[in-house]
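Q: What would this chain look like folded?
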Amino acid sequence: MQHTQRIENKGLYEAHLEHDACGIAMLANINGIESHTIVSQALTALERLDHRGGHDAENDVGDGAGILTRIPHKLFETEWSENGKTFVEVGMYGVGMFFLPADDSERERSEMMIERMIGKTGLEIFGWRTVPTNNRSLSQQAKATQPVIKQVFVLSPYEKPEDIRFERKLYLLRKKIEKALINEGIQKDEAFYLVSFSSRTIIYKGLLLPKQLKAFYLDLRNERYETGMAMVHNRFSTNTFPSWHRAQPNRYLMHNGEINTINGNMNWMNAREPLFQTDMLNMKDISPIVDVDGSDSAMFDNTLEFLVLSGWSLPHAMMMMVPEPWLDNERMDEERKAFYQYHSSLMEPWDGPAALAFTDGKQIGACLDRNGLRPARYILTEDDFLCVSSEVGVVDIPEEKIIRKDRLKPGQMLLADLDKGCLYEDEELKQLIISERPYKDLVEKNIIPIEKVIANDSYDYELKADSSSVLRKQSIFGYTLEELEKVFVPMILNGKEPTGSMGYDAPLALLSRQSQLLFHYFKQKFAQVTNPPIDAIREESITSMEVMLGGNSNLLLSKQQVDKKIRLQTPILTGKDIVKIKNLRSNNWNTATISTLFPVNGNLKESLDQLLQKVENEVNNNFSIIILSDYHVNKENAAIPSLLVVSAVHHHLIRKGLRSKVSLIVESGEPREVHHFAALLGYGANAIHPYLVYKSIPSLIDQENNKVTIEEAFDNYVNAITKGVLKILSKMGISTVQSYIGAQIFEAIGISKEVIDCYFPRTSSKIGGLVLEDISRETCERHNGAFSKESLELDIGSDFHWRREGELHLYQPKTIHTLQQAVRTGSYDLYKKYSAMINDEVGKHTSIRGLLGFKKSSQSIPIDEVEPMESILKRFKTGAMSFGSISKEAHEALAIAMNRIGGMSNSGEGGEDPERFTPLENGDSKCSNIKQVASGRFGVTSHYLIHSKEIQIKMAQGAKPGEGGQLAGHKVTPEVAKTRGVTPGIELISPPPHHDIYSIEDLAQLIYDLKNANSKARINVKLVSSSGVGTIAAGVAKAKADVILISGYDGGTGAASRSSIKHTGMPWELGLAEAQQTLKLNGLRHKVTLETDGKMMSGRDVIIAALLGAEEYGFSTLPLVALGCVMMRVCHLDTCPVGIATQNPELRKNMVGTADQVVNLMRFVAQEIREYMAELGYKSLDQLIGKTDLLKQEEPDHWKTKRIDLSSILAVSSLAKKRNKEEQDHELERNLDSRKLLPLYDKCFNQTQRLDAVLPIENMNRSVGTLVGSKVSEMFGENGLPDDQINYHFKGSAGQSFGAFLPKGITLSLEGDANDYVGKGLSGGKIIISPTAKSTFLAEQNIIIGNATFYGATSGEAFISGIAGERFCVRNSGAQVVVEGIGDHGCEYMTGGRVIILGDVGKNFAAGMSGGISYVLVKVLEAFKKKCNQELVYVERLDEEEDVCFLKNKLKQHVQYTNSKVAKEILENWEYNYPNFVRVIPKKYKAILTEQHKSKQYS
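A: My prediction, written as structure tokens:
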């Protein structure tokens, strides 16, 4: 028996890349009074969070549910007494909860081992208890993996109940038992798991649905089961291999979200462990502290448990692990800042979107991540009941008993001390902990800014070398003229990383015939679905690039003085900095410089081993800073690739237990691009000195006619790299570089397993590749070439632009010209000539699919027997290119062409003119049948969504996964602005994340919203290829997407930084194959359609995509080339010479391409597909889907590819048979709209009368009003119905997305409260929310709606009597909303509409706001200005009559609709109060309005 379904690595699937999210609830009686009521309420809350958990394809098996409580003493005492045994008093025993093997002999062996270890620990067993269970409600799959569940009772040797020493002893015992059983071959993850072992708490959990938990565990239904607190958790795993033991809560903690930095946190904990010393615990018995096979939640729990049991208080440990953003917080006092700075020198943050609940049995608390990316609502009652949950409304509490409704704000904490009967809120709790020590003094004494370190040598470090030696070193490290011109110059002049467009069509590093740096074999990973990227530009206040240099000692001595550190504002060191550091000689710091060179004719492995030994020796000699330098590279000695050096040293020191004693600085001539620095930091560098960059800058300044000084150039370069690295770490959802260092958030492509395992452990590398000898060869060939050239000249370079003697490119003059001639003339022969160039000449050396061939078939058939072209064409799509990024002519040509052939075009994220929804007289249609929903939500209305056959959620795009988009103001013409619902001439920005998708269950909610908005449309989720995309795809399938698109990194027509275009994401071949394999392993493949795109060039590419699993195929660049694109790569500059990627009316006249040419292209590709099918002997494309056995790996033709192994791509799953397609069950017929609202609506319209209805509502009622709204939009079009024609009044707690995409004519009013996403995409409707009349609290002081409300609203009205959570009205473009207070990041990226706020606002208000107006009631103007991000806006007093009248009228309406007390008071003394309002208006928007006003006056 195995009680886990976890499948080990198979094909491209890697088990450690699983992700999860969940719904959580924490309940407590603050006084610790125990009752069964809390158990019942907790289980009710769990069931009401069912929609936040995951299920298998048949909805029979949950991903895991559980409950943690205090030990139910009354239950156990009664039961033992009934069995004739006198029980001990509460707290004088511990209970071990075990999952044991079902096999009798294995279980007996396990129990004997447990008893033996208890005896060895000096403890006495009171007895064993079999936990009563009933598995009748479980599916066969769950039953098959069900363990035997038993409890062992152990007596305390101490006099004091619940003695912390007993807890430590039980902790040690648990660790010993786990080790002993593993040593006996009883593997923890398969046949045994120790759920909990404590004298205070106990956990009941399993592979269960929420409703099954109390049905399965009979104890939970027993009235004698009493507790003073409970934590419940419902898990959503990205696959269906969840197990009994991975269910939560864990022993100290439960977690909703994801720890993005987990690899780094785990590495650093392992590095610190050898230095841990404490009298409280025997370190030998508990090592390793962190279970590396656990989930991120489990690893966090391991660390928290260890810290608490080694002497840290529970809240203190949580404050260190999850610090609030402090560095740039102007409102935080200096003592609190000092506290966090002090602890930042001890431990890096565990960073990521997370709501965490934690307990040691005596205290119970909750906290939120620094960016507030998960919901955590709470209520407090008059009888001291506290409930913190992912949603409001999960427990039934009479409204009149509730004295407070609130939420945890970003970085906040809440703690109930059950022994003391106290509830500590954030400010009081943290002040108690901070006041324990003089942290400000400690920081001033022990953390020294680099600026205050005195240099002994003069500073001319960068300027010593002559130009010839600089040129020589540039050649050694592979510099090119293209790089200097296109990368360096923009950075030194503008302080920004350069931008490019049109994707990447040159070879991967492993396929390139040109010399490549080791950096280029590594790709950046990024956040998609399971966690969000963060906005490092608009939400910069939560980020930090600060680095500490110096060693660490024993973390457990929390009263010690911190080891002295040098503080850097950025990890990028200047010459001044490195001179200071090199000369450090003191009791606190000693610096050693170690050469990283190796003999050109020597052995790289031997040199690396010698280097590692030197570093180890120096650390043992108490050097706390090691500089790894290739500065003295010369003809005889080449530089070991700096990435290899730093990762090898980093991991060697971890293995030796020395890493935390030292900081590593890389001094190298190799790094110069943003990607290089990010990789060095990611693999363990604490700081980097790119000396050759600084030596190269003076000559570049001369070439640029001294536009900047040398000092300015240096500063600009450091600033560009620092911002670029910040963007990269933010793409993964990481806020601080300290957490990024050593986190290894990269994957390799073209590096062998032996190199990865030895020097880059836990890095994914799916297809093998270079061994150490190959890395040496590539390095030495480049090195020797620099010394063999007769004249010192750099290669011209051809990375992004094709050059005749340079790098291969898929798009080069001959391929572009031949294709364009073919589609213009309709010549299939010319197309075949083009195709031969791509398939035979270029493709073989540029892409993974070029290494694949078809196995010869003796079963070829006549082409007449192959399915017709028309059915193949239906599988074709054009990619998401918005109107705005490309011209109207190009956008409409694509739509017309795809509609003609029966395929589908994609609107992109720019909306679509409703006039295009009506077919043309000749039968053509300009309507894009795929409507995209991206993070900007431009033009996303109910009417827009209803006119689609497919709705695509863009989680990422190939050109820049993890980043947002932008459209320059000069491209926002009146026509573009009308389509997007914005003001002409103002730059438009899409935020990096969807602000309603911070986790997998959030994506499930948006899918549900969109299915309600158009029940006939398929929901498509666009992902970008990356290792782990298979498990994400499984999660997306479980979230009930209909189509999953896997995009390749090399596609993408959008503008992006060059490092993103080239170095982020993976080829679609890898991602598609992994998705196919993982979905089959999960039994989910039949539920979804797989699609792929990314530099699809020919019918051969489509056939390979089909064989790897894709059923539908997207083309983006290719149809643009068919329309006339010549790959100038200036799309972002609005200077496209052929009129495609421009809004310039003169340039648009140059577009000569037509829909006919795109039709010809698609028909040519389809015909080529038919020819391949005939050759392979298959009649239909369906028969080819997933037939990887028809592919083979071609023989290598270059030394770099000889060790590539594509067997993992071609792996065939034997675990899952092919199943007939099944549609996802979106459960629309069971929602409130279908059951109640639609019947009322239909009845009303049969009688053509106004509708008024009153209904109850609860948190499980989600997307209420959306389905009805879709019917209104379908029937009445964009203008909807007259105002208030349909009125639904609700009472209770509304679920997520209340009123999403609500069109004009529908009014939803609510007495009660609502969860996240109220009014999302509001499309003209009206929403009114106010507390119930029974409420006793002040509405204006309590939370009434959740986070990300009115996100992407385009029109309509809302009146909210109470406070909204974080990110209120993000990307509002037309709605008018009144609210009585908001959280952080309000009105971010707002482009239109008007917002009235009658109370406090959180920090970073109006960040990125480019349109619309906000009116805010301000008590203290200067305090408000500190919270307002004034980069783009003015903060003004109201001095225009129009504003005053608008405000007064809206407040009157607010009183009318909500009976708002605060609005009444303002109106009653209007002349006194209205001057306290300020107007927040974007600067450019105001200028445009002023100009428009002048024009009207002139007219």
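The two ends are 84 Å apart (CA to CA).
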